[in-house]
Automatic annotation (TrEMBL):
<protein>
    <submittedName>
        <fullName>Alanine-glyoxylate transaminase/serine-glyoxylate transaminase/serine-pyruvate transaminase</fullName>
        <ecNumber>2.6.1.44</ecNumber>
        <ecNumber>2.6.1.45</ecNumber>
        <ecNumber>2.6.1.51</ecNumber>
    </submittedName>
</protein>
<dbReference type="InterPro" id="IPR015422">
    <property type="entry name" value="PyrdxlP-dep_Trfase_small"/>
</dbReference>
<feature type="modified residue" description="N6-(pyridoxal phosphate)lysine">
    <location>
        <position position="198"/>
    </location>
</feature>
<dbReference type="GO" id="GO:0004760">
    <property type="term" value="F:L-serine-pyruvate transaminase activity"/>
</dbReference>
<dbReference type="InterPro" id="IPR000192">
    <property type="entry name" value="Aminotrans_V_dom"/>
</dbReference>
<keyword id="KW-0663">Pyridoxal phosphate</keyword>
<keyword id="KW-0032">Aminotransferase</keyword>
<keyword id="KW-0808">Transferase</keyword>
<feature type="domain" description="Aminotransferase class V">
    <location>
        <begin position="41"/>
        <end position="337"/>
    </location>
</feature>
<feature type="binding site">
    <location>
        <position position="347"/>
    </location>
    <ligand>
        <name>substrate</name>
    </ligand>
</feature>
<dbReference type="Pfam" id="PF00266">
    <property type="entry name" value="Aminotran_5"/>
</dbReference>
<keyword id="KW-0670">Pyruvate</keyword>
<dbReference type="GO" id="GO:0008453">
    <property type="term" value="F:alanine-glyoxylate transaminase activity"/>
</dbReference>
<dbReference type="InterPro" id="IPR024169">
    <property type="entry name" value="SP_NH2Trfase/AEP_transaminase"/>
</dbReference>
<dbReference type="GO" id="GO:0050281">
    <property type="term" value="F:L-serine-glyoxylate transaminase activity"/>
</dbReference>
<comment type="similarity">
    <text>Belongs to the class-V pyridoxal-phosphate-dependent aminotransferase family.</text>
</comment>
<dbReference type="GO" id="GO:0019265">
    <property type="term" value="P:glycine biosynthetic process, by transamination of glyoxylate"/>
</dbReference>
Length: 392
């Protein structure tokens, strides 16, 4: 069997990630490859670190992209900060809180689980009560922007509680970076990880991380070696450290880092506050249109993540049939529900380059057509008018 080159169609990506990749980033990915220790590439690495500090709003020296997806960024935070016998309080309000539990147990630490209803934010009062009950917690871990539900938690309050009760905070910011305020230094967050494929609109495969001085001190004070050689920050720093000769650790994904660098340059050009406002405005327009279609949100407005819109599937409308229709007829992708919400919700992404008016109009008109084809009564023109009123 002869296999020829793969040429994917041009899709509009409005699921939970990846998001649409901007043409500038696609062009950057195709630039000539340099050696991963080339002086010019090392200079770009330093620029990338500075750009990430801006995106994270931090002055942390230990700020860099892990050469792997956001899941590796998550693991890097846990394996570097937790040792056998440690205790971690993990807040679970969706799929990704469960993944944090997995990381804690694989470190040989004890996970103290604190559950919240899916579709709601983590409640600081409940977290404080748990911290009071368990006086020897080393790490408080929570998801800032829960991608499985679209709930946004109060990271400032939760990181403040971690400081108040003498523990470190680990924050999942995979979906929040670039889309909503993420103020690492102001909030005193200790270990934060994100992903390249959400609001940064880069390709999947890189995970920005940042560690506070308190987190670095904890890493240096470890009694046991970090269980992951590849994710040991003591070793990675030899390659990503400041100035001087770089020690070989791994062959960095050179062209992927070109793409991340370009995406961060674009974020800097737009301005963080402008990017946050753009995502908020696009969400408001989408929400106005969906309301006219009779589609209801899972998350209450005050806890809702603007770049990940989790909505209930109307009665009489089939999940898979609708998503297949959108893909086949409109080259449009939205996401299915996960875990407890599988088959009950759609997840509509408005992230990065995907968060623009033409995508909202496409989604509303295509979704209305898909539901009409199944006998569900709705009017696309009314939904479009409502969205356009917000955009105007």
């Amino acid at each position: 069997m002869a296999i020829s080159s793969f040429h994917p169609p041009l899709r509009t990506l409005m699921g939970p990630g990846p998001s649409d990749v901007h043409p500038r980033i696609l062009e950057a990915l195709g630039r000539p490859t340099l050696g991963h220790l080339d002086p010019l590439f090392v200079g770009m690495m330093d620029e990338t670190k500075e750009l990430l500090k801006y995106a994270f709003q931090t002055s942390n020296e230990l700020t860099l992209p892990i050469s792997a997806p956001g899941s590796a960024g998550m693991e890097a935070c846990f394996v570097n900060l937790l040792e056998p016998g440690d205790k971690a309080l993990v807040c679970v309000n969706g799929v990704f809180g469960n993944r944090m539990i997995e990381n804690v147990t694989r470190c040989g630490a004890t996970a103290i689980r604190l559950d919240f209803a899916w579709g709601t934010a983590v409640e600081p009062a409940a977290v404080e009560a748990a911290l009071k009950e368990h006086g020897d917690i080393k790490v408080l871990a929570f998801v800032h922007a829960e991608t499985s539900t679209g709930a946004l938690s109060d990271a400032e309050a939760l990181c403040g509680l971690a400081k108040q009760y003498g523990c470190l905070s680990i924050v999942d910011a995979v979906t929040s970076m670039g889309g909503v305020p993420l103020l690492v230094d102001k909030w005193q967050a200790d270990a934060v990880y994100s992903g390249s494929q959400k609001c940064l609109s880069c390709t999947p495969g890189l995970s920005p991380v940042t560690f506070s001085p308190a987190a670095v001190a904890a890493i240096k004070a470890r009694k046991h070696p970090v269980q992951s050689w590849f994710l040991d920050m003591n070793l990675i720093l030899g390659y990503w450290g400041e100035g001087g000769k770089r020690a070989y650790h791994h062959t960095a994904p050179v062209n992927a880092l070109y793409g991340l660098h370009e995406s961060l340059v674009m974020l800097q050009e737009e301005g963080l506050e402008n990017a946050w406002q753009r995502h908020a405005t696009m969400h408001s327009a989408l929400a106005a249109g969906l309301e006219c279609l009779g589609v209801e949100f899972v998350v209450a407005a005050e806890q809702r993540l603007p770049q990940l819109n989790s909505v209930y599937i109307p009665a009489g409308v089939d999940d898979a049939t609708t998503r297949q229709y959108l893909l086949a007829k409109h080259d449009l992708e939205i996401g299915a529900g996960l875990g407890d919400l599988a088959g009950k919700v759609w997840r509509i992404g408005l992230m990065g380059y995907s968060a623009k008016p033409e995508n909202i109009r496409l989604l509303l008109s295509a979704l209305a057509a898909a539901m009409l084809a199944q006998g569900y009564e709705c009017d696309a023109s009314v939904a479009l008018a409502a969205a356009d009123a917000v955009l105007a």
